[in-house]
Amino acid sequence: DNNNNNNKPSQEFDGFNPFQPGAKMPTKSGFGINSQTKPITTPGGQISPRQMRMKELTGNLLNCLSNDDAVAELLQSNEDFLLEQLNDVDVVLEPGSVYTPDMSREERFRVYERVMGERIGDARAPAAKKALGALLDFVMERE
User: Fold this and answer.
1) Closest listed residue to residue 140, CA positions, set 91, 79, 95
2) CA–CA distance, 70 with 56 (Å, rounded to integer)
3) Do residues 24 and 35 touch, judged by C-beta distance below 8 A?
4) What are the pLDDT tens digits along the chain (143 aa)?
């Protein structure tokens, strides 16, 4: 029955024992914060949801790099997210953003292109270069 009685434990906590030292919540997608990964924070110490989502997206991108259709589908399904800070000049920017509130859409695309070019140049792993290149190409095709 669906009357929110709390007699049945939620399946969300299956396998989690809070009394076991070092116990961690199981994660469905492997994208949980665990003891090996520090959360991404803004300069004020706040966790950045945008950077967390971007980290998840780039991880997924790296996992499907060998399949062009999967890459295209992943980027397409995240198009609004990827273009939000470029297309919406009134969007609230996070601290540390490469964009400033006074930038035009065209200026933001130029900054994106330059910053991504630098990141591709700095990346050592060929897979990282390819993933960043796929992001750059996808975004710049929508300028």
Assistant:
1) 79
2) 15
3) yes
4) 444 445 554 455 555 555 555 544 444 444 443 334 444 455 556 667 888 999 999 999 999 999 999 999 999 999 999 999 999 999 988 888 899 999 999 999 999 999 999 999 999 999 999 999 999 999 999 99
Three-state DSSP string of 52-83? HHHHHHHHHHHHCCCCHHHHHHHHHHCHHHHH
Q: What is the CA radius of gyration of the chain?
A: 19
Q: Which residues are CB-neighbours of 134 under 8 A, at least 6 positions away? A: 61, 65, 71, 75
pTM over 0.85: no
